[in-house]
Specification:
Helix content: 25-40%
Number of helices: 4
Number of domains: 3
Structural class: alpha+beta
Number of strands: 9
Strand content: 35-45%
Largest sheet: 5 strands, antiparallel
Length: about 210
């Protein structure tokens, strides 16, 4: 009986030692992960999960979890399509590995999240500007996409604090350009940064 008890006690001690060694090694490994290494590993993971996406670090700080980094990424999928998807993920790495938290969804499925007619809205990013121009259903944009096909249309946008276009002065606008290799012209939409109102659309021959 004494031998059985001693064997059980020894087994418990061995298990406790193994757990202690495991956690000690885990903490040691965590402490040797630099911020750059964490960013690089997560970036590779995101590019594997979303091929051809635009992946950027927006913030990287020491995590509340010892030995880890709290890193926020912005991800843009189909950045040059009429309806890009744009969202933000956060990671506490290596504490939770590649398990992420969705910090925000800005655009998805041709919808801008957080846009409300009752509240002021500022367009602060290219994907939101592009999505907004598509959502407004301007006849020239609809006709252009119908003529050349959604997948054959490429969209780009630029923000201007102040500019002159067609002899008219504008301030704080987004210029959204729709083009296609199959077309001999582009359609351009000008949106106000505040609330994203459509100011004008016009064609430019290529």
């Amino acid at each position: 009986m004494d031998l059985l008890v001693k064997t059980m006690v020894a087994a418990v001690v061995v298990v406790a030692i193994l757990f202690a060694v495991y956690y000690a090694m885990q903490n040691t490994l965590f402490q040797h992960i630099t911020k750059d290494q964490a960013v690089s590993l997560i970036t590779a993971y995101l590019l594997g999960a979303y091929p051809n996406a635009q992946v950027n670090v927006t913030n990287a700080t020491i995590s509340t979890y010892a030995g880890s980094w709290h890193i926020i990424f912005s991800i843009i999928i189909n950045a040059t399509s009429p309806c890009p998807s744009y969202f933000a993920y956060s990671f506490d790495y290596p504490q939770f590995g590649f398990v992420y938290r969705v910090e925000n969804t800005y655009t998805k499925n041709c919808t801008i999240y957080g846009l409300s007619p009752e509240k002021p809205f500022i367009i602060s990013s290219s994907p939101v500007a592009i999505t907004r121009s598509y959502m407004l259903n301007a006849s020239s944009i609809k006709a252009f996409i119908a003529s050349y096909g959604f997948r054959n249309v490429t969209v780009a946008s630029n923000f201007f604090n102040a500019t002159t276009i067609n002899a008219i002065n504008y301030t704080r606008i987004w210029q959204v350009v729709y083009s296609s290799e199959r077309a001999n012209h582009s359609v351009i939409a000008l949106l106000s940064q505040l609330n994203g109102n459509m100011l004008v659309t016009y064609n430019v021959t290529r």
